[in-house]
Amino acid sequence: MIPNFSGTLDKIGARIDTVTTSPAALFLDPLQPLSEGDKRKLLHLSAGAYERFVNRVAFSRNKTFEQARAVARGRVWTGEDAFHNGLVDTLGGLQTALNIAKRRIGVAPDHKVRLRILPPPEDPIDAFFKLFQQLSEDKTTTSLAQSVSAQVPGWPLLPETVQRQFIYFWQLNALGARSTHSWPCPGCRR
Q1: pTM of structure
Q2: Residue 8 has pLDDT above 90, yes or no
Q3: How far is CA 137 from the centre of its chain?
């Protein structure tokens, strides 16, 4: 999630010397190896968002937090494995989804329907460039970048890709720090 070039520097024999006024001054410095403290802080910062995600899975799949957590742990499941672990209701593709939707709204299975995809599909390359254009023009991201840059030493020296990852991490942290739910969650673990 966070790029780190310390191994690359070791391979070419480069060394970095630093002078800091605080142990936190080098937090997520891409030129320094992650310290055990950095790893603990990253875990702490992402724990809130992860716990909220597991709570939502548990609630929507009618499981306890512990049951959802047992199948979570950052794994990626095939559709079949997700089905066997109770994470999806059925297996299938678009036609299966259409048949389920027809059944739920009382339309005969053999009745022809017209499928309209909204928004209309975009060329993947155009969509990719549009996303980056929106990110660069987004005032929220820009103001967040200014806020983050004021708190991260050496911000202007970081490559733009690292800056974007910092901003993403900051947003993830803010998301995880929220303590209210916008959906019913009886018995959610906090």
Answers
A1: 0.47
A2: no
A3: 21
